[in-house]
Amino acid sequence: MNGELSFGQRLWRELLPTLGQALGSLVLAMAILTISRSATIMTRLGITDAGVAQSQESLLGHLRSVIVSPITSNLVLVMFWAIVGLIAYLVCWAFYNFLVEARNEVTLETAYANRGHWRGPWQTLGLKLLCGAGLVMILATLHLTVPQWVSLGETVFSEVTVSSIGLGIVSILGLAANLYLVLAFAQLTFTPWYRVKSFT
User: Closest Cα partner for 22 from 183, 166, 156, 135?
Assistant: First the structure.
């Protein structure tokens, strides 16, 4: 029995969002819509600009004595060098991972005959260019599509009716789908999803 997926099935599996990807896109869409209308939300909650400024001044007054202490400056210095070390470690780890992946690819290319389809360099390059063009097109149209979804859902912040709630849900789903398309085309462009798994 052949359990190998066809090219179309692999493409469909890559385009179909997982539960985590769908939830992440929805949460990010709701966060973008909420941040874009934060002034309206604060006005409806009765929070004025003067109240926000007063709370900021009060918080800074409490934190000022902590910020200027020598312990805090030493802690900031230690945290800075820890972050530099972490970034250096991640760069070295990513480079080592890249080398291991390249070695594994060379081993699969040279040592195994059952390599499947879509291994040719021109096929791969054409597919990557096609997926990359889709990714560039989606990114280029974000400045047009995202404001449309945001403006569609802003009626729910001014008045709560059945139609405004429906438009809010549509705007969240549309923005989430738009954001997921960016992720999906990034995966199609930068991952080897089109290759059949090699059997060893």
Answer: 183
The number of angstroms, rounded, from the C-alpha of 174 to the middle of its chain's C-alpha atoms is: 16
Question: What is the C-alpha separation between 48 and 124, in angstroms, rounded?
Answer: 57
Quick count: other Cβ atoms within 10 Å of Cβ 33? Answer: 21
* Helix-helix angle 162-190:121-140, to 10 degrees: 150
CB 152 within 8 A of CB 174: yes
Q: Distances in Å between the alpha carbon of 59 and those of 54, 64, 70, 149, 153?
A: 9, 9, 20, 35, 33
- Alpha helices in the chain, H assignment, sequence order: 7-15, 19-36, 38-44, 49-67, 70-111, 121-140, 142-152, 155-158, 162-190
Global pTM reads 0.58
Per-residue tens of pLDDT for the chain, all 200 residues: 445 677 778 888 888 888 888 899 999 998 888 887 776 666 666 666 666 666 667 766 666 666 667 777 788 888 888 888 888 888 888 777 777 776 776 565 555 544 455 556 677 777 888 888 888 999 889 888 888 888 887 777 767 788 888 888 899 999 999 999 998 888 888 877 776 554 44
What distance in Å separates the CA atoms of residue 71 and residue 66, rounded to the nearest whole number? Answer: 9
Cβ–Cβ < 8 Å for 154, 170? no
Please name which of 115, 170, 153, 182 lies closest in space to residue 32, comparing C-alpha atoms: 153
